[in-house]
Amino acid sequence: MRILHTSDWHLGRTLHGVDLLGHQAAYLDHLVEVVRAEGVEAVLVAGDVYDRAIPPVDAVTLLSDTVARLAEHADVVLTPGNHDSAIRLGFGASLMRPGVHFRTRVPDVGAPVILDPASRGGSGGQVAVYAVPYLDPDGVRWELADGCCEDAPDASEAPGPAAERRPLPRSHEAVTAAAMRRIGADVAARRESAPGDRLRNVVMAHAFVVGGQASESERDIRVGGVDSVPAGVFGGVGVDYVALGHLHGPQKVTVPTDVSRGTTGQGGAGGTVARYSGSPLAYSFSEMHQKKSTVLLDLDASGEARTELVPAPVPRRLAEVSGTLDELLGEAGDAHTDDWLRVFVTDDSRPTEMYARIRTRFPHALQVQHRPARGTEREVVSVVGSGRDPLEVTHEFVQHVTGSGPRTSEAAALRTALERALASERSA
């Protein structure tokens, strides 16, 4: 089966105040075209479909339209991430058309979506997709408690059903491991019931897996100081591919097949392949060097997972440029006039009308900072007491902020302001 793995669309997000919905729509047009042109049979969206729990109306409309277009060519499975509201993303899931699966309920983690190519005229084998929504430890540590933990009470000593369980530890590792135990049990049961049938298995999960490289724009999911999930949690249960979401840089994660033996899997009979698809757009300057993409996954009859990265369209490049104002307004800035920019102006003194002149030269500049090129000096903190001359203090402040003292006209303006303030106090 050919599967497209994507995540972290963050529909409705802005970049330093710039509305990105049009660029996100362009990416989704690209996604639909890839599905059509590459004969994709299933699309997996591993969380953070929206950027916030209550998305703007335009973002909801865009998602609805995109899912309808994708469903014309492939099955679609979506799960919420830590930015989404599981309730809002899953609203009306039972009313969706065949082939569209919003999997937002935690109790469903052990019940797969069975994708059958024959339903769309294909000839490949079935694939079981276990969709794991973002698991907030505080919200699900009771719901996923299943008696499998070391501290679980002996059921024979428990006075009743409610006392037979204890909450899972307050960590992402604990709740994800509990979800994977349910998935492993279901995989084993299906293989036992049909020993000759090699059902291929895929897990979708939205989590920070140990070994992944984070960037600044992923929202912190730390709870109780434990925010990561060891990659070994996904190994050893018969899963062929793990479609990860949360980290915005496309990357592969090594999953140990047998933690005790230290072996690693490469897919199929050798183990589990796990990968982050990354976000379709750069959502912070920390992502400006990432090559955004979507994962094209091929699962063969043995379950071997082969992946290929399909480059995502780049609506506007993110870049960083620094120099004196004269340098930036000259040749040094020629290559960046159409970029989303972070600009560092290195003049020793803050140039007059710096921001306005930069924005005229670079209409898409998102951040402009004055960062003098001189070496960083040790900051000297002095106490400003009542005996200090207020005018002297203001001059020192101007020196500290701009790198040079006030000009004659500025000093006159400061003196006038101070005199008016003193006069106002005397007349009060």
TrEMBL record:
Q: Which Pfam families does its entry note?
A: Metallophos, SbcD_C
- According to the record, the segments passing through the membrane are none
- Limits of the Nuclease SbcCD subunit D C-terminal domain: 315-400
Region (Disordered) spans which residues?
151-175
Which residue stretches does the UniProt record annotate as biased composition, category Basic and acidic residues?
163-173
From the Swiss-Prot or TrEMBL record, what is one GO molecular function term? exonuclease activity
The record's listing under InterPro entries reads:
Calcineurin-like_PHP, DNA_Repair-Maintenance_Comp, Metallo-depent_PP-like, Mre11_N, SbcD, SbcD_C
Domain of life here? Bacteria
Q: Does the keyword Signal apply?
A: no
**Has keyword Membrane?**
no
Q: Where in this chain does the record put each Calcineurin-like phosphoesterase domain? A: 1-94
What's in the keyword line of the UniProt record? DNA recombination, DNA replication, Endonuclease, Exonuclease, Hydrolase, Nuclease
Q: Which PANTHER family match?
A: COMPONENT OF ATP-DEPENDENT DSDNA EXONUCLEASE (PTHR30337), NUCLEASE SBCCD SUBUNIT D (PTHR30337:SF0)
Give the function comment from the record: SbcCD cleaves DNA hairpin structures. These structures can inhibit DNA replication and are intermediates in certain DNA recombination reactions. The complex acts as a 3'->5' double strand exonuclease that can open hairpins. It also has a 5' single-strand endonuclease activity.
Q: How does it assemble?
A: Heterodimer of SbcC and SbcD.
Family per record: Belongs to the SbcD family.
State the name under which the record lists this protein: Nuclease SbcCD subunit D
Look up and give the organism this protein is from. Oerskovia merdavium
Q: Which gene encodes it?
A: sbcD
